[in-house]
Write a structure and sequence with these properties.
89 residues, mainly alpha, 87% helix
C-alpha cells in the first residue's frame, strides 16, 4: 500500500460524507433561512422558533432518502472491504 492508495481511500471517505450529509444540511439551511425571513418580516425575535421546523424537515428528508443513503453507504462499504485483500496482500 502506498501513499496514493491511502489518499484515494481518504478522498473516497470524505466524498461519501459530503454526499450523504448534503441533503440534510441543505434542508436545515433552507428551512432556517425561510424562518429567518419570516421572523424578520414579522418582527418576531424568538430564537427557538426555528428549531421545530428544522427538526421536522430533517426527519422528513431522512425518511425520504434513508433507502438511498443506506444503499450508497453499503456500496461504499462493500467496495472498501473488497480492497482489503489488495492492501494486505
Amino acid at each position: 500500500m502506498n501513499i496514493g492508495d491511502v489518499t484515494a481511500l481518504v478522498g473516497g471517505a470524505v466524498w461519501q460524507i459530503l454526499i450523504l450529509s448534503a441533503p440534510i444540511l441543505l434542508t436545515a439551511l433552507v428551512v432556517g433561512l425561510v424562518i429567518a425571513v419570516i421572523q424578520a418580516t414579522t418582527s418576531i425575535q424568538e430564537q427557538t422558533l426555528s428549531f421545530v421546523p428544522k427538526i421536522a424537515a430533517i426527519m422528513l428528508v431522512l425518511a425520504l432518502l434513508a433507502g438511498w443513503m443506506f444503499s450508497t453507504l453499503g456500496e461504499y462499504t462493500v467496495n472498501l472491504f473488497s480492497r482489503i485483500s489488495g492492501i494486505t496482500g
